[in-house]
Design a protein that fits this description.
The protein has about 130 residues and is mostly helical. The protein is built from 4 helices and no strands.
Amino acid sequence: MKVQGWMFSLLSLFILVVAIVYGAWSKEPAGTAALFLAFGLSLMIGFYLAFTARRVDAMAQDNKQADVADEAGEVGFFSPHSWQPLSLAVGGALAFLSVAIGWWLLFFSFPVLLIGLWGWVFEYYSGENQNQ
């Protein structure tokens, strides 16, 4: 995490320089304010990562002699047979399409989204997968 902290800190310094140069040349307040806000956000993330890196154990990316396999391990549990992401994708596509077509389509996409979200959250509490 030390590496990510340094990367975000250097990124925040770069964004600060860009914000100052952009503000001096363009005299445009919206873009200058956005760049200063991006600087602040990057600085907060860099500080958080650097602060957290002191409290956790050293990771493989902090060791210059580490191999790629040193960080290998289980990434997480992914359900191989779930249909719920398809329902969420259709509902999300309809919701975003409602911006282009008309807001009335949102009333049809919202139930599809809720059904997909409900099914995904409670997928392992009922049916054949109840004991996993």
